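EI: anyone free to look at a 403-residue chain?
SC: sure, send it
EI:
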Amino acid sequence: MQKFLNLIFCLYICLAIISCVSDKDSSLDAFPDTENASEEKKLSRKEIIELIESTITDAETEAAEKGIVQAEEADAKEKEAAQKEKTENALNFPLPEVKNTQQIADFIEKNYEKRFEIPFEAYSGQLEMPDRDLLPFGAIVLEAYRLAYPDKKMKIYEKEGDWCIELDGMIFAWAEGRLLPFSKRVEAESYGKQIIYPNNGKPRNPKAYTQEDIAELMKKGTKAALAAEKPVDNTFTQFLLQTNDRIVTERNIRSVNFLGHRVNVHKMIVPFMEKIDGEIRAAAKTSKEVSKFIADVSEIGGYNWRTIDGTAGRRSYHSYGLAIDINAKSNKKPTYWEWVRTWNSKWMLVPQSSLWLPPEPVIKIFEKYGFVWGGTWDEYDTMHFEYRPELAVLAYLYMADEE
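SC: here you go
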């Protein structure tokens, strides 16, 4: 075997020497004749180089057939395997210091102004996040879900070319923007994409819309848009929240006292609703705006098994008991885009200041506990708050990764 490798090495040396000679005197096409020259010595440089290259190729083929792998190829495969293992280990690293979403939200809220300067390790306390270049958006989305619901003990890994998340033995694949049961990933084009985005808490800004943005938003809710809308597979969300159907969902619904009103919500968010209630009431002691807001609340809607207005049957988070709508007695301003669209085709250009808005301290308290405010959406819903901790975590993962 050693002789075989030595032969390859010698042939490479010959090739290098001949190439150098060829570079120095490219005008000569053949070796000079000598008195004792053989036919082989009269070969052109080009022919000799081709002969050596052919011999090397044959040697490499023979080595491959005998199972001999070149050292550098083996090293490359080992490095690739090691990197893959490192990535998967990082994604599935246990988080003993992050026991619930409140701790995650508390950290984000506490460091809200300085979060661009905070290293990711300070956030998780344990997790070493790989560079985003190593992970597609889907893998980061799955990581956000895992961090937002640590009690579910989800695992993330790559399987047959798709990033997957495993929950209680059920495997879901991120299939080009759709989070589908693994067996459905081949049917991805038949489904609409999940609405997943990094929630940075910034209100909508109609002044920033381009003409293309306005044209796209004007299509929302139209018959043509509804006809073209593909169904969204909600299996992962339903499996995660144990809201497979109405009967199962209502087993998880509890009644909670919130700002003086009884509200039906999923039992998962009852502790958060109680804390939000306490913090809003505490803020009212020093803020007339917040105090007036509490006094002006006429009704708070929670659990309601229904689809979203202006869509082709997308399930509302009210259906899971994870959203609430706050109505005010004295409000005469618009709150919901679809209601405005019925009389104003330029509904998307209504300034934020012309909509009914909860006080900013109230919004920030909700966001602290993993809720998203509907006033940040282009399709605005300013009375609406829904529990989406994965969106807050996703925003922080992106900011931490951009350090």
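EI: Residues 206-387 form a domain with the Muramoyl-pentapeptide Carboxypeptidase; domain 2 fold (CATH 3.30.1380).
SC: 👍
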